[in-house]
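SEQUENCE-TO-STRUCTURE ENTRY
===========================
Question of interest: how does this chain fold, as expressed in backbone structure tokens?
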Amino acid sequence: MSQPTSIDLNLFRVFEVIYRTGGLTTAATELHITQPAVSNALSRLRENFDDPLFVRQGRRVVPTPLAHQLAQEISGAVQVLHDSVLKGQDFDPKTSTRRFLIGMRDPFEIALMPTLMAEIQRQAPLLKVHSNYFVRDQMSRLLSAGDLSLVIDISLPTGNDILKCPLVEDVFCVAMRQGHPLSLQPLTLDRYLAARHITVSNSSSGQSLEKFILSSQGINRVIAMQTQHYFAACQIVAESDLILTLSKAVGHWSSQFFPLTIMELPLKLPAIKVAMYWHKSADSDPGHKWLRLHVERLLKAQFKAAHAVVIE
């Protein structure tokens, strides 16, 4: 490998975007430059590292082993430079026009976004906050690359560069329509297993947290339907005889919108641990700290109202 002693630092930004998007055209669009300019930058990187870095596979380009090796350090360095610029600026919530991207699933949207929007309208009217879906095994990479500012999710494995703030511990419960036959008698394990279930999952395999935990204990249910969002699942449950296993907090919030009966799960499962995650490069950024403070306070208040265990 040749020694990259005088490499243009702008090339690393091009590398990071190609790695993240998987295409030269999409990279050019995001960087607001032409595709030939991206190709030229990639050629210079290939010469510096004496490696193709990306090889074409159909309509995409895929990283070589060396590119994978370089990606985490380059993405982190690009993010550090970006955050260094922000840290040199004072953060005034009244005038800031910054945009924050929060990775979360729809139950946390229901709990957080309405109250956060009210807070932003009062304190930071020009601030922009977007909620983004993300693939869990990509969380560290997305935070490192700056594609997500924060993540709110269940307990997930992370590297040393990802910081974590535990928020709450919750338990599973069962939601069913009001007047459901199962709501008129004690919900035993046999009755629970004999019922027809709906599950919420973005996976084609139908994998979900409760399914994973139940399966590990040798417990299998009849899954009659799968949806991608709890809001849709709860509406279906309210209008059918299907039952839904979900966290107690989500059941509490959903029962405010739909005529549901919430019952205890007839077996003991491990607690659902919820945390907030961010990249260490953003830890001391004043705007990021402002957002984390409000997200933590608002989410804990919502979970506390739903009788979940808040971690102080």
Notes: The longest strand covers residues 162-170. The radius of gyration is 23 Å. DSSP finds eleven helices and 13 strands in the chain.
